[in-house]
Amino acid sequence: MAKKRIVVLYGGMADEHPISCISAASVLRAIDMERYEVIPVGITRKGQWIVDGEDPKAWKLGTSDLPSVEITKNSRPVLLDPALGCDGFFAGEHEDLKNPANGYGTNFVSMSGIDPEKHNVVCSLGHVDAVFPVLHGPFGEDGTVQGLFEMMKVPYVGCGVLASSVCMDKHFTKILLQAAGIDVAPWITLDTREFDSDSAFERNAMDILAQVQRAELAYPLFIKPSRAGSSFGVTKVESGDGADARSQLAGAVFEASRHDWKVLIEEGIDGREIECAVLRDVPAEQTRTSLPGEVVLDSRSHGDDDAFYDFDSKYMDESASHVEVPASLPQEILERVRTVAGKSFDAVDGMGLSRVDTFVRPDGSVMVNEINTMPGFTSISMYPKAWEATGIPYSKLITMLIDGVLSN
Fold first, then answer.
1. Pfam families per the record (predicted)?
2. Which of 210, 273, 290, 352 has the fewest CB atoms lying closer than 10 Å?
């Protein structure tokens, strides 16, 4: 049987760029090379699509420098012709990466609009059967690249345009889940475009605090960008008391606004953070859920009760936390988490895969925090570990996701 040709897409313009690189490295090391011919396509931070750059399989966690897709002397620009669909993937010459005046170096161009004399510097990458977009954050996990592949009629792994865009925006995730009768943490949303300068955040500190008080949000508060992932721009504010409480809150809003003008102020929940992997690789089949897991912050075991799962804990310091699957909870509560996770995934019209992050409160009730439509695939990520504990090994999981979209 001929191998299916799969583009693995990684990098991107979001803050999560290096995490996408590491996730893609893990996928490329684990993918079944006897079944698939893989074409790694990197996206630089500036949005240039390239092939033949640095081999991503060598990237891993635990190094001092996070990986990045860079233009090398051997890399070539990737050009897309949407009208040609699965046959619309091309590569140009290296020098054209520096010559955007000819249409190269952009996300996609139409071959029909290029001078015929230029065709000799463009070669087809061949028929592409499917794309695995291992992209995190904006411009990759938010429905934008999904819309591109929908337009090209190219099968791709993961959620569609609606679910991707809704779940990328924490505000609208909450709105949709509430409409489905699913409990979410109380919050307010700020439009920081109203602040015309950095100093405007401090000048409006009283108003920000007043909005928190009117919403009766209980401390601690978590201030976060609405459309960012991997804990970028997230700040914990412990108390509204004290002379500098307003300044701390305003500073936290400013920090979040550096990643997104839409900022959430969310009530901290007294509960354990329990995550559940969700899988629906074939549309006709029912949504499946893994054994729920818990990321245990090892710093808390050393007396740091204020620690939370920030960027460094997730990706930079393997000793900062570890994953426990299943989470140490009664079976009844674990099943409740799985039920809520599956219901949440279906409520946002999920497809392929997602990780549903929940809070389990002391009374056993379950509240959804957020849904990640392209969860991390690194060696310490919850999603693959949860499925391994549930009986689906990492390599088989990748095969199921790819074969699922090929069967549609």
1. Dala_Dala_lig_C, Dala_Dala_lig_N
2. 210
pLDDT digits (tens, 9 = 90+) for 363-387: 999 999 999 999 998 878 999 999 9
Q: Is residue 267 a known part of a binding site?
A: yes
Catalytic residues: 16, 230, 381
Q: Look at residue 53 and give its three-state secondary structure.
A: coil
Does the annotation place 199 within a ligand binding site? no
Q: What are phi and psi of 334, to 5 degrees?
A: -60, -40
For residue 290, say whether it is annotated as part of any ligand binding site. no
Structure tokens at 24: 């893609």
- The yes/no answer on whether domain 4-157 falls in CATH 3.40.50.12280 is no
* This prediction's pTM: 0.88
**97, 118, 136 from 77: Cα distances, Å:** 6, 14, 21
Torsions phi, psi for 249 (to 5 deg)? -65, -45
The span from the CA of 18 to the CA of 59, in Å, is 10
- Which top CATH class is 187-267? alpha beta
Helix spans in 298-381 (H)? 311, 331-347
